[in-house]
Amino acid sequence: MPNYNPLNDEEAYVILDKGTEPPGPGGYTHTKDAGTYICRQCNAPLYKSEHKFDSHCGWPSFDDEIEGAVRREPDADGRRIEIVCNHCDGHLGHVFKGERLTDKNIRHCVNSISMRLIPEGESLPEVLGQK
């Protein structure tokens, strides 16, 4: 087992068991701070703050990811596309196309608990573990 950041029960439910945190204003839903969002489990960079937008869906939304950071997989429900950290396979949320919320016409709907924001100007932590 790779050496990743320890997760509490709620984090493990979302990241490892593919759960969903409740929607709402908590976490990073309304955060406007500049920086880089990294995977809570392995520290891999996932999203830049300039790609974050307010979709009014109850979870943080991004219309782009850092190249190679996010992998798309068919969701177990057969209807949606799950997004996972490409480095550690941690569950992030789901991706939706065709909603016309931004010019890129894509929305990464991400659980706040699946990531951490590293403010602009701060060093990114070392990425942990190997696949």
From TrEMBL:
<keyword id="KW-0862">Zinc</keyword>
<dbReference type="InterPro" id="IPR028427">
    <property type="entry name" value="Met_Sox_Rdtase_MsrB"/>
</dbReference>
<dbReference type="InterPro" id="IPR011057">
    <property type="entry name" value="Mss4-like_sf"/>
</dbReference>
<keyword id="KW-0560">Oxidoreductase</keyword>
<dbReference type="Pfam" id="PF01641">
    <property type="entry name" value="SelR"/>
</dbReference>
<dbReference type="GO" id="GO:0030091">
    <property type="term" value="P:protein repair"/>
</dbReference>
<keyword id="KW-0479">Metal-binding</keyword>
<dbReference type="GO" id="GO:0006979">
    <property type="term" value="P:response to oxidative stress"/>
</dbReference>
<dbReference type="GO" id="GO:0046872">
    <property type="term" value="F:metal ion binding"/>
</dbReference>
<dbReference type="InterPro" id="IPR002579">
    <property type="entry name" value="Met_Sox_Rdtase_MsrB_dom"/>
</dbReference>
<feature type="domain" description="MsrB">
    <location>
        <begin position="1"/>
        <end position="120"/>
    </location>
</feature>
<dbReference type="GO" id="GO:0033743">
    <property type="term" value="F:peptide-methionine (R)-S-oxide reductase activity"/>
</dbReference>
<protein>
    <recommendedName>
        <fullName>peptide-methionine (R)-S-oxide reductase</fullName>
        <ecNumber>1.8.4.12</ecNumber>
    </recommendedName>
</protein>
